[in-house]
């Protein structure tokens, strides 16, 4: 009985291999991963320039003069 089960197992294995080899020949070629199909990426933007320096503060106005008539 053991030899029959081994023969049965080998027959099923052979039939599976035969079936899958026939099925695999009908499948379309493998599609390339998206990274190969994607359009080329844009180059990264240039580094940001530092902001221009702040202008120097204005000097204080001269003291006010009064034109009093004495």
Your description of this structure?
- This protein has 70 residues and is mainly α.
- Helices cover 41% and strands 0% of the residues.
- It contains two helices and no strands.
- It has helices at residues 2-26, 34-37.
- It is rod-shaped and about 135 Å long.
- The N and C termini lie far apart (139 Å).
- The relative contact order is 0.05.
- The mean pLDDT is 78.
- Keywords: Signal.
- Residues 28-70 are annotated as: Disordered.
- Which spans of ≥5 residues are poorly predicted at pLDDT below 50? none
Secondary-structure element series: HH
Terminal-residue CA separation:
139 Å
Mean pLDDT: 78
Number of strands: 0
What brief labels describe this structure?
41% helix, mainly alpha, single chain, 70 residues
Architecture blueprint of SSEs:
Layout: H1 2-26, H2 34-37
Please outline what is shown here.
The protein has helices at residues 2-26, 34-37.
């Amino acid at each position: 009985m053991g030899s029959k089960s081994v023969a049965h197992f080998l027959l099923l294995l052979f039939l599976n291999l035969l079936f899958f080899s026939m099925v695999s020949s009908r499948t379309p070629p493998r599609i390339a991963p998206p990274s190969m199909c994607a359009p080329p990426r844009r180059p990264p933007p240039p580094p940001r320039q530092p902001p221009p320096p702040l202008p120097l503060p204005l000097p204080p106005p001269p003291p006010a003069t009064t034109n009093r008539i004495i």
